[in-house]
UniProtKB/TrEMBL annotation:
<dbReference type="InterPro" id="IPR037151">
    <property type="entry name" value="AlkB-like_sf"/>
</dbReference>
<dbReference type="GO" id="GO:0070988">
    <property type="term" value="P:demethylation"/>
</dbReference>
<protein>
    <submittedName>
        <fullName>Alkylated DNA repair protein alkB-like 8</fullName>
    </submittedName>
</protein>
<feature type="domain" description="RRM">
    <location>
        <begin position="18"/>
        <end position="96"/>
    </location>
</feature>
<comment type="similarity">
    <text>Belongs to the alkB family.</text>
</comment>
<feature type="domain" description="Fe2OG dioxygenase">
    <location>
        <begin position="199"/>
        <end position="325"/>
    </location>
</feature>
<dbReference type="GO" id="GO:0016491">
    <property type="term" value="F:oxidoreductase activity"/>
</dbReference>
<dbReference type="InterPro" id="IPR005123">
    <property type="entry name" value="Oxoglu/Fe-dep_dioxygenase_dom"/>
</dbReference>
<dbReference type="Pfam" id="PF13532">
    <property type="entry name" value="2OG-FeII_Oxy_2"/>
</dbReference>
<dbReference type="InterPro" id="IPR027450">
    <property type="entry name" value="AlkB-like"/>
</dbReference>
<dbReference type="GO" id="GO:0032451">
    <property type="term" value="F:demethylase activity"/>
</dbReference>
<dbReference type="GO" id="GO:0003723">
    <property type="term" value="F:RNA binding"/>
</dbReference>
<dbReference type="InterPro" id="IPR035979">
    <property type="entry name" value="RBD_domain_sf"/>
</dbReference>
<keyword id="KW-0694">RNA-binding</keyword>
<dbReference type="InterPro" id="IPR000504">
    <property type="entry name" value="RRM_dom"/>
</dbReference>
<dbReference type="InterPro" id="IPR032857">
    <property type="entry name" value="ALKBH4"/>
</dbReference>
<dbReference type="InterPro" id="IPR012677">
    <property type="entry name" value="Nucleotide-bd_a/b_plait_sf"/>
</dbReference>
């Protein structure tokens, strides 16, 4: 699915717009679309945050009301924004332009070996359909917290979306007993390297309605340890990955001739890959995949997998298990790491 096309107004009476083009802001400089929406949301209801282009460093912030975009423009244009790392934002009004359908899809892998990104593992049917129903009933019997487009539950420690981190001094308690069989199964699974040596103590449950995805991000290095497990329930989705390039560095696997990663030839600064996550599957991100690749779920209601059209279910629920980090991160991907060296 092509990116929404925005442009500067061409006529004087269209000078103002509920949409703002914001430069020096985006996943490539360390800020997710959810974080940007939270910052701009102080000026009014944000309809959505979109990539302005393929750079990852420019976004479109779309407000419901034009007065909200005016207030944000007046307060933030050319000014350092403390909530976004003190960066000076460069803002223009923008309008949505009609476009023809553009196919910018990337080939979708069905297995982690096809994807060929170091550190990714995928196990189909990690839980049975009966276990899936038990897990869904368990979370539906507990209170949800509403975000702008989805609902969440946190266990162990609450994940703070404004800082993309956890408050280690505020522990919510043990993980709920209904996930104990999942934790035991993870610890015994041989394909998940080092899984038996880590005590997972943080769980985020996300509920995604049809068409709602997740903006590109890397889980904060200093917040969590190496292994991140995500169990998909109720509905399928496509998860895409972006590796933003730094100088002439490329992932080791990029030299593989059968790798389903698009090495850019058009001057863009990232390579892409994608994998299909069916219901009841368990995904593990570790090593390079966890520390250096942005992962995200496109905002689609329909996905295309190997020329087969797959409609998203009435909802998708993910259980993401992590281990809260007790000290600074010492990974080898310093260009993506928030811990000081």
């Amino acid at each position: 699915m092509g990116l929404p096309r925005f442009g500067r107004p061409k006529t004087a009476d269209a000078e103002l717009s509920p949409n703002l083009y914001v430069a020096n802001c985006g996943p490539a400089v360390g800020f997710s679309h959810d974080t940007i929406a939270s910052v701009f949301g102080t000026f009014g209801e944000v309809k959505g945050v979109y990539a302005a282009d393929e750079s990852g460093a420019r976004v479109i912030v779309s407000f419901v009301e034009e007065s909200s975009s005016q207030a944000a423009f007046k307060a933030l244009d050319g000014q350092p924004c403390p909530e976004l790392g003190g960066r000076s934002l460069h803002i223009r009004y923008s309008v949505l332009q009609p476009t023809s359908q553009v196919n910018d899809s990337v080939p979708v892998s069905l297995t982690a070996s096809e994807l060929n990104i170091p550190g990714i593992y995928l196990v189909h049917d990690f839980v049975s359909s009966e276990e899936e129903e038990v897990l869904l009933q368990a979370v539906d019997g507990r209170p949800w917290k509403g975000l702008s487009k989805r609902r969440v539950q946190h266990y162990g420690y609450e994940f703070c979306y404004d800082t993309r981190n956890v408050n280690t001094r505020h522990r919510l308690g043990e993980l709920p007993p209904f996930v104990s069989p999942i934790l035991q199964r993870i610890s015994l699974f041989q394909d998940f390297r080092d899984a038996g040596n880590i005590v997972l103590d943080q769980l985020t449950v996300n509920e995604y309605p049809p068409g709602v995805g997740l903006s590109p991000h890397i889980d904060t290095h200093s917040a969590f340890e190496d292994l991140i497990f995500s169990l998909s329930l109720a509905g399928p989705c496509i998860m895409e990955f972006r590796r933003y390039l730094n100088g002439d560095w490329l992932p080791k696997a990029a030299s593989s001739t059968d790798m389903k990663v698009e090495v850019p030839e058009d001057g863009s600064n990232f390579i892409r890959s994608a994998i299909y996550l069916p219901p009841r599957s368990m995904l593990l991100l570790s090593g390079e995949a966890r520390y250096a690749w942005h992962h995200y779920i496109p905002h689609h209601k329909i996905d295309t997998v190997r020329e087969k059209v797959i409609r998203r279910a009435s909802r998708r629920v993910s259980f993401t298990f992590r281990k809260v980090r007790g000290g600074p991160c010492n990974c080898k991907f310093s260009q993506f790491c928030d811990s000081p060296r």
